[in-house]
Amino acid sequence: MSGPLEDRLREAFPDARELAVVDRTGGGDHFHVTVVSGRFNGLSLVDQHRLVYDALAGPLADGTIHELRITTRGD
Amino acid sequence: MSELRERIKETIEREPVVAFIKGTHEQVYCGNSDRALQALRGVGASFATVDVLPDPAIRQELSALSNWPTIPQVFVGGELIGGADIVQELAATGDLEAKLDDKLGESWRAPGEERTIAVGDRANPFGLVS
Q1: pTM for the model
Q2: Run means of pLDDT, 10 residues per run, chain A, 75 residues
């Protein structure tokens, strides 16, 4: 179930050194995504998470994602 | 700017620490909102909460204002510091206290005061619920 989210994140963060999508409950709607990318360098955590939200705006808006946990780090 | 958005903005600017959550500080209806409050409690910060559940417009206007799509949202000194994940991460690294010191000086250390305020009630502009 995490395939489409991972595709969107790979598109947004093609340089990501680490990228993981975990379906936390097995229900396909509670996810924890981890992204380590140079795009985050120099950004506040708030702005880092905003980039992830932007990448996943579609599934966030259409209800595919009910809950999203985010872990980000610069590279 | 809508009147509601104006009131939300005013609340964010007025309250030293304010968390927009699902529920109240006494009755939280969301695990993420609870994680954010626990992080604030962990450093002994006083804070206000605003319940977004009574009116969907609160959440819409808040997100339009903050450019942040999810709840909870924690503001310190008028600035969005994050949702549950960031606030928890900041608490774990000690950066939450540093951020509170940086934004508010020592005043936030007056411990343990928690209250829930409203943004949607025009008859009660100070919105004190409890």
Answers
A1: 0.90
A2: 84 97 92 97 98 96 93 96
- By the 8 A CB rule, do A72 and A49 touch? yes
Residue bearing tokens 């009630």: B121
What is the C-alpha separation between B81 and B43, in angstroms, rounded? 15
Tokens for B102, please give them.
């940086």
Cβ–Cβ gap B80/A46 under 8 Å: yes
Strand partners, B18: B48, B75
Of the residues B67, B76, B99, the best mutation for testing chain A's interface (the one with the most A CB atoms within 10 Å of its CB) is: B67
Token pair of B130 as six digits: 């409890």
Q: Does A57 touch chain B (CB under 8 A)?
A: yes
Dist CA B30 CA B22 (whole Å): 6
Contact A67 B32 (CB under 8 A): yes
CATH dotted code for B3-117 = 3.40.30.10
Domain boundaries, chain B: 3-117
**Which chain A residues are Cβ-neighbours of B67 within 8 angstroms?**
50
**Which ipTM did the prediction report?**
0.89
Instruction: Please tell me the total count of domains within chain A.
Output: 1
- Using a CB-CB distance cutoff of 8 angstroms, which residues of chain B are in contact with residue A60? 69-70
